[in-house]
Structures are given as structure tokens and as C-alpha cells.
Amino acid sequence: MDFMTNFLKNIDRKNIISIIGLAKNVSKTTTLNYIIKNLKDYKLGLTSIGRDGEKYDVITQLPKPRIFIKKGTIVATARQSFEASEVKMELLKTTEFNTPLGKVLILKALGDGLVELAGPSTNKNLKKLCVELKDLGCDLILIDGAFDRKSYATPIISDATILSTGASVSEDIQNVIELTAHTIDLLNLECEKEKEISDIARDVFKKAKVGIVDNQTNIKLLDVPTPLDAAIDISANLDEKSRYVIINGAITDKLLEDLMKLTQRYEGVTFLVEDATKLFLSKNLKNKFQKKGGIIKVLHSIKVIAVTINPTSPLGYHFEKDNFLNLMKKNLDVPVYDLGAGN
């Protein structure tokens, strides 16, 4: 199945699709341009949670693929980025969202051409902006984002996600494959299916940073400022009746490592977070925790519909593209595509 057939099969009208990258220069913009070029019969909305589409990367100063849009596309971008774009656009609305490049404007492309994107810097504002784009009639919204910002893949904002990876992640092809597979593994983590627990978790998220639920569904809220350094408090409150530890925030290697040193009572206990964007775990630590009996679940699942790859790094090295593509397909459970030149 080719990329666009798979893409259209996995989306509905009014969907919001995010494109996330494991590093810079991994084909995010190439993927975005491919979708725009091949998409038909959709009123497209386009924005970003970071600055994108500029001629040169603002950090590396290396040339970047430009974002080419079609006439009629609705674009949400900061004022300075609008002024740097090379397509005539009609201003539809000036939003309340401030960025270092000025307020975010909502515009309609009056022709085909190149644009630069710079959207809101917070998930809260990005979510509001997507609502405004839908209100303007957009029946598909694409979000292109900054390097290593996976947070906008959260189901609270987007309905599905495309992950981009490539040679710029590492010079070692096996490292790239393993990191990509681990990221997919985290994003595909099992969703909590018990409604009562899901409802309890939502309530805990409103009231505290950590909540412990026992086998009678009694809830104990812990008075901690952040989950990051809460291992001592969690271990002190775990007992043989404990069933869930609900984390309002991130689960990190340090939290699990500290917990494993302090107690064995986490065995058989489910650690529940809102979604996989809250998991900052290495493959080794995650596997160690699970092998010792710890369970990690999410309240909301993230739907990864495809992985796109770039076998070339701007630093001068590359992988043999067919070998890289085949290895990715062999190691991942989601469709993998190379959308680069000639594909």
C-alpha cells in the first residue's frame, strides 16, 4: 500500500494529524510537502508548534526543504513568518497567541507558493488554534513541529501521528532502528480499558501530581510538587493492596530507577500516565522495570499511522536507502516509507 492510500485510509474529515521527528533533518518537512502535493478534495489547515519552512535551519544554518502550499490552504503562522513567506495571502484573523515572531495570524493562500510556519509554543494554545481552523471550515489540519517536541502528538490535540526518522539520528544504523522501534513501542503502549480506573485517573489529574489506588478503589493523593522526585513518597505509600499509581506528569528513568532501589512493592502495580508523550524512558530501563513486574499504561493511546525515513544526513554520511527501508520495515509494526527524491 502506498503512502497516500495508507494515509487516507487512516484519517477522517475534521482530523488533526501531527508529524513528529526523532531529530532534525529526518524528513518531517518532506513528509508534509508530500501530503500537501498529493492531497485532493480537502480544505487543508496548516500550522506548527515551532518555526519551520525557513530556507535555512536556524541552528545548523543548513538548507531546509521549503513548505509549498496550494491555493486555498488556510495557514496559521506568526507575523514575521508570514512576511517571510513567498505566496500572497488574505488575512482572515489575528489571534491572541503571541510568539517571539509576533502574533499568530490565520491566512488564506491566494495562490500556490512557499511559506514559513511558526505557530503557538504551548499545547494549550495549539489546541485552541486547531479549533479556530476547524471553525473556518478546515476538514484536515496538519501540524508540523519543532525538533524533539513529541508533546503535540498527544491525543488531546491530534487524532493521529506520523513519525519521521533517519540517518541524522545517529551514524549507526542499528541505533537509529532501535531508537525508532523503542519510540513506536512507547507510543503504542497499552491503553487503560477499565472505565472506573480511567475516571479515577482523570479526577487525580485535576487534584494532585500522584495518586495511589488500592484493590478496593480507595484513592490516596500524595502531596508532592512533581512526580520526578517522588520515588520516596511513592515507595512509602505502596503496600500489598496497591493496584495503580497514577502519575500526573512524566515518568522518567530516574523515577523508576529510584523506585526499584527503594522497594519491590511496585511489582504487579500499574503506573498510569495521560499519554505516551509523558514517558521519557530508555529502552533498557523500561524493559528492566517491566521484567521485574512493573506495568506501564496510558489513559489515551496515540495512533501512529506511518513512519517516514531519510537515509541521508546533512552532516555528509548516509545509509544505503533500500537496506535502511527494509530494516525499518522488518523491525516496526507500522508502515514505513521513503518519500525522498525519486520515491
Describe this structure in words.
The chain is an alpha/beta fold. The protein folds into two domains: 3-188 and 303-337, Rossmann fold, CATH 3.40.50; 195-298, LpxI C-terminal catalytic domain (Cytidine Deaminase, domain 2). The protein has helices at residues 3-9, 28-38, 79-84, 123-135, 173-187, 195-207, 231-237, 253-262, 283-291, 321-331; strands at 15-21, 44-48, 51-52, 67-69, 74-78, 89-99, 102-109, 113-115, 117-118, 140-144, 160-166, 210-214, 219-222, 242-247, 251-252, 270-273, 279-280, 295-298, 304-310, 336-337. Strand 12 and strand 13 (219-222) form a beta hairpin. Helix 5 runs parallel beside helix 10 (321-331) and helix 7 crosses helix 8. It is globular. The chain starts with a helix and ends in a 6-residue tail after the last strand. 40% of the residues are buried.
Describe the SSE topology:
Blueprint: H1 3-9, E1 15-21, H2 28-38, E2 44-48, E3 51-52, E4 67-69, E5 74-78, H3 79-84, E6 89-99, E7 102-109, E8 113-115, E9 117-118, H4 123-135, E10 140-144, E11 160-166, H5 173-187, H6 195-207, E12 210-214, E13 219-222, H7 231-237, E14 242-247, E15 251-252, H8 253-262, E16 270-273, E17 279-280, H9 283-291, E18 295-298, E19 304-310, H10 321-331, E20 336-337
Parallel strand pairs: 1-10, 1-11, 2-5, 2-10, 11-19, 14-16, 15-17, 16-18, 19-20
Antiparallel strand pairs: 3-9, 4-8, 5-7, 6-7, 12-13, 12-14
Helix pairs in contact: 5-10, 7-8
